[in-house]
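Aim 2, interim progress. The first record below pairs a target sequence with its C-alpha cells.
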Amino acid sequence: STWGLQIIFMDRSQNEVSSILEGNIASQPRKISLFMMRLFNTVTFDNTGRSLKKVLNLFHLLFLGVSCVLGAGAYSVIGLAAQTAGPSIIITFAIVGLLCFFTCFPYAEFAAKIQSAGFSYSYIYSSCGEILGYLTGHCLHVIQIAGSAICARCLAAYIPGFLEIFGIHVPKFIYEWDIMGYNVSILGGVIVMLLTMLMLFGMKESTAVNNVVSIMNLLTISFAIFAGLFYIDTGRADFKFMEHGVKGIFAGMGLTFFAYAGFEGLTCFTEEAMNPERDIPLSLTLVLIIAIIMNGGIATVMTLMAPLSVMNNSQSLLAVFKAKCPVWMSMVISVGSISGLLASLSAGLMCQPRIFYSMAFDRMIPKIFMQINPHTLVPDFAVIVSGILCAGITMFFEVDLIGNSVSLMALLVSALVDIGVVVARYDLECSYSRRINRSCAVFFALSLFAGFSLFYSWHWSISGLAIIGITAIYFYIQVQKQINIPINFSCPAVPLVPLIGALMFLLIAATIDLTAWKLTLYYILIGFASYFMYGYWQSKLNPYRSQSINSVKQLELPEEWVLDQKEETKKLAESYVPEVKRLRLESENMAKSSTGNLQTISLSLLSLIHI
C-alpha cells in the first residue's frame, strides 16, 4: 500500500501528499500530456489590456466571410481549373461546395467551444496535441499568406486592364517584369503594403472599408452571372461538356477547392465577435451557401460563354467578357473584380496576424508576435511581418506555381479539423481513449492511401482493402460512448459527418499534382525542424521549463475540468485513508509488542547476572 501511494503521488511534494490525505486537494494536476490533451480552453487570452477588441456583429462577420471566400477563386482560378476539367468544372464546383458542409459544421462546433483567434491551429492544438497543432499553424502561414499573395497578384493583373479601357497605359514592368527568369510584380507588392498600413489603424476601420468593397463584390458577381446568361454559346465546335470524362471532374477538384478555401478563415475573428457562440456558426453556414451559389454561377457562365483558351490566364473572368460582351460590361466587371480581389486580400491579411498572435501566446513562436497596440488593440508586429511576407511572395511567385500547394495544405488542414472533432468527443480518461486516437490516425492514412490508389488506378484489391479498413474504423468509433459538452452548436451525426468530410478531402488531396505534394512535404519537414528547435523547448506545456513545473496555472484550465479532477483525487485519497490508518495501527502494535519483548529480555538478563 505504501508503494502504491508512492507511485500515485510520486510527482507531488510531501506537503501536497499530506494535504491530499487530509482532504485539502491540490488545485491542478502537475503533468499534462502533450499528445493526448483535450482541454478546450487551452488558448485563452488575458483581457486586461491585451485581448483583441470585440467590435464585430453578425453583419460584419458575414461580409468578412464573403471577402474570404469570393476573391481570386471566382475571378481567376476558375479559368485555370477549367483547363484540367473542361466545361465539366461546373459539376466539380457543385461537388466541392457540397463537401465543404462536412467541414463547415466541425468548424462551427469548435468556434462555439473555443473563442480563439487561431482558428484551425487552436482547434487542432486543443484536440490532437501540440505537435499537430504547431504543424497546422505552420501550414496556415502558407495558406493565408500565399492565398493573399495570389489575390494580390491577380489584382495587379486586373488593374492595368481596367485602366486600358479608359485609354490609360500602364508600363508593363510595373505589374509584370521579367528579371532573371522571374516574373516580378512590383504593383502587387505595393498594394499589399498599402493594405497592411490600413490594418494598423484598427479592426473597426478595416471592416468598414471591407464592408463597402464586399457589397461591390457581391453585386459584380451577380451582374456577371445574369449578364452572362444572355451570351451562352454551347453550339460552338470546340464545346464538349465531358471532354476529360469523370477523371477530369476529380482532377480539377484540387484547384477548385481554392475557390472555397477561405470560408473557414471567418473563425479567426471569433475572439473579436460580440456573440461568437451564435454568430460564428450562423455566418459560416450563410457564407458557404453564398459561395456555392456565386462560384457555381460564375463557373457555369464562363465555361458556356467562351472556349477554354480564352480564360487560360490570371484575369479569366474579364477576358471572357472582353471576348464576348460589350465594352461597358467589361468596365463593370473590371471595377467589380478589383473590389472583390481587394476585399479578399484585406480579409486574408487580417487572418494571418491573428494566427501569429495565438501561436505566440502558446510560446510556439517568439512573444513579440503577441504584443498588442494599446490604442488600436491590434497585434502590430504580427501585422507588419505578415504584410512583408505576403508582399515578397506576391512579387516573386506566380499563381499557378503556388495555387496547388495552397489548395493541398488547405485540404489537409480541413481533414485534420474534421478528425479533431471526432477525437474531442471522447473522454481523455476513458480506457479506449488512446485507441480512438490511433484509430483516427489510421483512418487519415488509409483515406489518403485509398485516394492515391483510386486516382492512379492501382490494383483494385489495394483500394478494396483500404476501403474495408476505413469502414471497420468508422464502425469501431461509432459504437464508443461520447461525452456531452453543453454548447450552443454541435456538429450533427458525429462521427459520420466529420469522417465523411475528412475522407472526401483526403481523396481530393490525392488528385493534386505530385509537385505540389513534394513542396508541401518539404515545408512540413521544415515545420518539424523548427518545432524541435524552438517550439518544443519554449512551449508553456514543456514540463522541463521551470515556469511550467512550478505552476501550471498558465494553462488556464477550464473550471469544470479542475473541479472534476479535484473530486476524483479526493475520492482516490479517501479510498487510501483507511489503509493508511490500518498500517499506522499495525506499526503502533508492533512497537508496543517490541517494547514488551525487550522488557522481558532485560529482566531475564538481570536475573542471570544476579545468579
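The second target in this work package is listed in the same format:
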Amino acid sequence: VSMSLSTMRGYAPSKKQAFLMLGGGAALGLTYSLYKYFTMPPAVESSYGSFESLTKDWDWSLYQTAKVVEDPNSPMRFVRVPPTPGTIPVLILFGTEYGFSQSYAKEMQKLIVEKFGDKYYPRVANMEEYEVAEWDKEQIVLIICSTYGDGVPPTRARPFFDWLAENPQDLSKIHFSVLALGDKGYPHFARAGRTMDETFEKYGAKRFNNRVDVDLEDPNQIERWTTGVMTKLETMDQGLTAPANDYLWDKVTSGGFVKKVSFNRNTPLYAKVTIKKNLTKIEEDADKETFHMEFDLGDSGMQYIVGDSLGILPHNHPEHVDLVLKALNWDANHMIMAPSWKYPNIDGENPDKITVREALLKYYDMKNLKAKLLEFYLKEAERSPSSTQEVKKLRELLSQGVGNSNTVLAEYLKDRELIDIVEEFSSIKLPSIAAETLLGTLGQLLPRYYSISSSFMVNPKTVSVTIAVVRYNTHGRSRVGICSTHLNDRVEDGDILPIFVNNNPDFRLPADSSVPILMVGPGTGVAPFRAMLHERIEQNASGMSLLYFGCRHEDRDFLYREEFEKLVAEEKMVMRTAFSRQKSEKVYVQQRLRENASEVWNVLNAGGHIYVCGDAQYMAVDVHKALEEIVGSYIGHEQAVQYLEDLEKTKRYQKDVWF
C-alpha cells in the first residue's frame, strides 16, 4: 500500500494526460486511511482527472471513474478502465464552493475501492452536472455537500437544487446517505446538505446511514459518517443489481458529456485593472483604507448580474513567502509537482512542475493552518534525538485529538501562520525534498469574493469592486489580509489579474422596478447597493430607492459620498446616514432604522424589498432586531417574527453577509 500511495504522491500527469483517477491498492484500515487524509498530504493529481477535454473551448464534466491502470504503451501513461462485470455502481455526488466537498468525495471513492475492490464501482460527479444522471439506474448515492454562507447551496450546485425542487423524481431504487458541511456561526447551519437529505427521502429514497452535520470540516464528525457508510456497505450489495454496463462510463467514453467552459476559479479570466482609487482618508491608526477597483472585461463574454460577487485569485505577500523559505533553508527554485487546483498562466500554459516559491506565492494558504501540519512536524521531530522539547510540545498540543473539540489546539492555531510554526520548530530540519509533503499539509489558497459595485446593464465592458484593506497584529507580528493588501499595495493600473464571477441568485433586485427597495449597507456593505442604484437609474425605476449607510467618520470613510449626494440632490435615491465615531455618542444604522420606523413600515407595506449587506456577527443581527421591533410596533411581536420569516421565504428580505 505505501508503495502505491507514494507512487501516486510522487507522480502527477500533465494537464493533457487527462484521465488520472484515484483508486487501486490493497485493503486499508478505515481509521488509518482517515488519519492519513487529515494528517498527510493528499496524492498529487491532475485536475484533468475528471475527464476534461484537451481544448480551450470545452471542458469535460466533473465525472471521475474509480480505477486507473498504468500502461507503458499509452502516451498518457495512465489509462481509465471500465467497471468490472458484476460490480455495483456507487454515485458520490458533491456540491462545493471552496473545494473541500470535492476533495473528500474523491477520498471516499479511494476508500471504497481500497476496502471493497471490485465489489463496488464508485464514481464521483459534481452536482452541477445533474442533467447526465439517470436516477432510475442509480442504487447507492453518497451526497457530500457544503453550505455557502447562511443556508445557501454552493453556487454551481444551485441549479440542481432548484431543478430537484421543481421536478419530483422517483428515487425509490436509491439507498443514500448525506454528509452536510457547514459553519455553526450561521443560523442556517448545514442547510444545503439537510435540504438534500430531506428531498431524497421525500422522493422515496431509502436512508441507509444517518446524515451527519459537520461544523468547520471537523475530522471527528467526518469520520463518524465515513465509518457508518463503510460499515453499511459491507452488506448492502445483497439485493442490489450489478448492471451490464455503466451509463456514466458510456456517456464519458462516447464524448457526449461536455459543456461549454465558463470563467471560474479553475479557468479564470485575466483582466486588466483600469481604475484604482482610494475612497478614504487616514488620520489615525483605527481608520481603515478602502479603495475602488475596476477591471476591463473587453470582449471576453463574461457577464454578471447585480448582486453577484467577483472572485479574485490573490497572491501571498512575496516577503512572507521568502521568510518561510529562508527559515526552512529551502532553495526557492526547487521544482515540485503543481497542486491539482493550479489554474493556467496568463499565456494559457499549465505546467506540471513549478518552483516551491511559486507554489507558496500563488496556491497554498499560509494563514489558516490545520492540525496535520503539526502532526507532520511531530513525525519529523520523533526521528531526531535532539528534538525532545519539540516532541513534548507537539504531543501536548495534539493530545486531545485533531477535532474541533481540542480547544487548546484550536487556540494555538487560531492566530498563527506558517512562518510562526516554521520558526518555532526551526530545530527540526526539513530538506527541500520534503517540500511537497509539507505543502500537502496546507490548504488551498482560496479566491476572495467581493460584492460587485457596478451594473452590467450600464457598462457591460467593466466590473468594479469596493475593498477594505485588512491589517492587524498577532503574536508580535504585523499581519495582512492576503487579497486586500495584494491589490492595494502591489497592484497598479494596467496590471492583469485572474478573476471570475460568483453568482448569487439569493441577492437580486425585484423584477418590477416600480417596487420600492430598502438597502442597509454600512462600510463596504454598500458595494452591491451602488450597483443596484446604478441599475435602477438605468431602468428609470419609479420605485423608491432608500439607502441606509453607516461608517465611522463623515469626512474620512463615507464611501462614494459625492456620488451618492449627487443622486440624492437629483431625487434618484433617498439616503440615511449613521456615523459611529463622529460624536461622543455612537450611532449605527439600526438606530437610524428605528428613528425612521414609519418610513421602513411604509416601504414594507407597499410590497417593498429589504436588502442587508455586511457584517453577519453583529450588524446583520442588530438590524434584524430593529426590523422586528419596527414591524412588531404595528402588528405585534409574534406576528413580526413570522412576517419577517415570510419575507425571507418570498425573497423580499435578502442578505449578503459574512463573518
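The longest strand covers residues 269-278. This observation will shape the mutagenesis plan for the next reporting period.
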